[in-house]
Amino acid sequence: MKIDVTSFDGQAAGSIELSDEVFGLEPRADLIARVIRWQLAKRRAGTHAVKNRAEIARTGKKMYKQKGTGGARHGSARVPQFRGGGRAFGPQVRSHEHDLTKKVKALALRHALSAKAKDGAIIVWENAQLAEPKTKVLKAGFDKTGVSSALIIDGAALQTNFALAARNIPLIDVLPVEGVNVYDIIRREKLVLTRSAVDALEARLK
């Protein structure tokens, strides 16, 4: 798959051939959804908790006599039926994380990249560098090229000026190639890759 290479403000900078092994698959929504579910579950804190009837600080004295009241037979004010009582089957502290094999995660990443390629939502830049950390300059380039929601993937390390300029722009995420993941790719409209990011991804996923 051949794609044009540009600068962040839309100036032509040649072309590049994208590998069909990484960018040319028929996207599988089930794989992508499976990995997104794994990512979101992994980052959940799992610190939600309620008190059950054993943890409620109330007297253990029987509320009223067993018979003769004409009402139901109750022996504790800590039960879930009463206001201020314990919660039945409420959430407890736990981990929501579940396992996923490396092969599935790598395959889903290829399918996410292929999904963007199929939609024509991949942009390749020569590099992601700025002479000075000016958000106004970067925003002007995005406005010129019509980029409003994008994940930008650079090489092994981000240029400090570019990262500082981009962090104030809504719906724009910037990551080094080691941080690329399915969820961030799918949640933004465009995927912007630098030449070095393309080389690194193809070397990693082929």
UniProtKB/TrEMBL annotation:
One of its GO terms (molecular function) is structural constituent of ribosome. Residues 63-85 are annotated as: Disordered. InterPro entries: Ribosomal_uL4, Ribosomal_uL4-like, Ribosomal_uL4_dom_sf. GO terms for biological process: translation. GO terms for cellular component: ribonucleoprotein complex; ribosome. Keywords: Ribonucleoprotein, Ribosomal protein, RNA-binding, rRNA-binding. Part of the 50S ribosomal subunit. Belongs to the universal ribosomal protein uL4 family. PANTHER family: 50S RIBOSOMAL PROTEIN L4 (PTHR10746), LARGE RIBOSOMAL SUBUNIT PROTEIN UL4M (PTHR10746:SF6). One of the primary rRNA binding proteins, this protein initially binds near the 5'-end of the 23S rRNA. It is important during the early stages of 50S assembly. It makes multiple contacts with different domains of the 23S rRNA in the assembled 50S subunit and ribosome. NCBIfam families: rplD_bact. This is Large ribosomal subunit protein uL4. The gene is rplD.
